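Recall that a protein's primary structure is simply its ordered list of amino acids. Everything else, from secondary elements to tertiary packing, is in principle encoded there. The following example makes that idea concrete.
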Amino acid sequence: MSQDLIAQDILQQLVSFDTTSYKSNLALVDYVQEYLQSYGVDSQLVPDASGKKANLYATIGADSAHPERGGIMLSGHTDVVPVTGQDWHSNPFCLYEEDNKLFARGSADMKGFIALVLSRVPLMLAQPLQMPFHLAFSYDEEIGCVGVRGLLTLLEQLSVKPAMCIVGEPTSMEVVIGHKGKVSYKVDVTGHACHSGQAPLGVNAVDYAAQLIVYINNMAQQSALNGPFDHDYKVPYTTLHTGSIQGGTALNIVPNHCGFEFEIRYLAQQDPAPLVQQITDYAHHELEPKMQAVAKGTGINITQIASYPGLLIEPEARLVTYVKQLLNNEAHSKVIFGTEGGLFQQRLGIPTIVCGPGNIDQAHKANEYISLEQFELGGQFLDRLIADVAQP
């Protein structure tokens, strides 16, 4: 059986585990751990506080000729986005092939890459590797790169860290050298309720939330006009966006609560802290005094939900040119979606790129798929990478 057919069998197993981010991924990591152990490869789990989720980390070729070189980390996340409310034509947790495409939740983002990596474990073991490969599979990437942080702590304790990292998110097998960072926040506005006929005597939480949302939107417009800019992106500036809002109970009651969530997706070379400070200053110094002049106990609370840094590596960096050479493709790009790559690079100093099979346009939607062509290209790249690492 060819390596790609083996990879398809592994992918069929991986997608059968419903690892939607709010669920456990232990069944999947147990499967991966047992698979690796069947080849004599030990792995380490890094669980979350609940013990219901875990990262997995394994090293192949630790006894290679030059372990001090650190080796190459192949990184992927095991969680997937929900299928709720989506019109799937087949069972999203059962791999289905049609028209040279493999359909299932996570097939593109990004269990396809993990399946290809696992299918190449026997090849890694059979080669005289000159430096090790490290497999790093995380949880809860889809909700803000949350789970990988425990894995980062483990890696920080290693005497020799990976020398480079390839995050296998779907990029159509093109080298990605950058993506934006993200911070997201939950805002709770506490007002003072009263009958709507006495509206001036109350503090309308919805009105004050709306003022803050408008302020954030004005900041977004200023960013679009004034930058800074990075024209490698389709949207070449930092964006601010309000995504959800809830407030009020009845039209004839001045609402005493309103909540909303907003995010900032910022250029990797930009610090989002001043933008966040500008928003909090407006909330606390402009809006809250007006609210509290009417009723004590009112106010605005802003809480961070998630945060991960952007990724940026120079086009001339050794890792970039190395992978381009293996791909025989000089193109590179920057993408709209985030990854764990920025954390590996910023916190651990590991040069990182994003490069994997499949297209992000097929992810996060009904009937997600990875084409057989992309699946094969991903496997061919890994074969060339392993062969090159085995060269003395």
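The first helix runs from residue 3 to 16. The domain at 3-179+310-389 is CATH 3.40.630.10 (Aminopeptidase).
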